[in-house]
Write a structure and sequence with these properties.
With 126 residues, the protein is an alpha+beta fold. It is built from 4 helices and 9 strands. A hairpin with a 3-residue loop joins strand 6 (56-62) and strand 7 (66-70).
Length: 126
């Protein structure tokens, strides 16, 4: 049973957005980290890079697979989670605490096209 948190926004490609004011913390869901297995590397963009909704911004590699990260929203990267550079397995410990990038959102209306917790649970069959 995967952990799905109410109040977050979810994409079909298993990324989440936690919105705080004008900013969004983006990471992969608990379901995604379970599917990947032990995460061994996280490829992240640089601060000040632009991300676009639906487009790749990095990748997560595990011992069994590599998975592209697709941004659920558009905006400018204001912070990357540097802890993941040294300890990518933090994602396996708590995918929601260990976000990958923080972006300044450029279009809040994009959130309307993402799923809420109930819809995401339905999609993953839980």
């Amino acid at each position: 049973m995967s952990n799905v948190i109410d109040g977050l926004y979810y994409s079909e490609s298993h990324e989440y957005v936690k919105v705080e004011g004008n900013f969004g913390f983006i990471g992969i869901t608990d379901y995604a980290q379970h599917e990947l297995g032990n995460v061994v590397y996280v490829d992240m963009p640089e601060v000040d890079d632009e991300v676009t909704a639906g487009e790749e911004f990095g990748a997560v590699e595990s011992v069994k697979a590599a998975s592209d990260l697709l941004s659920p929203v558009s905006g400018t990267v204001v912070e990357v989670n540097e802890a993941l550079e040294d300890e990518p397995g933090l994602i396996n410990k708590d995918a929601f605490e260990n976000w990958i990038i923080k972006v300044e959102l450029s279009d809040m209306s994009e959130l309307d096209s993402l799923m809420d917790a109930a819809a995401y649970k339905a999609m993953i069959g839980e």
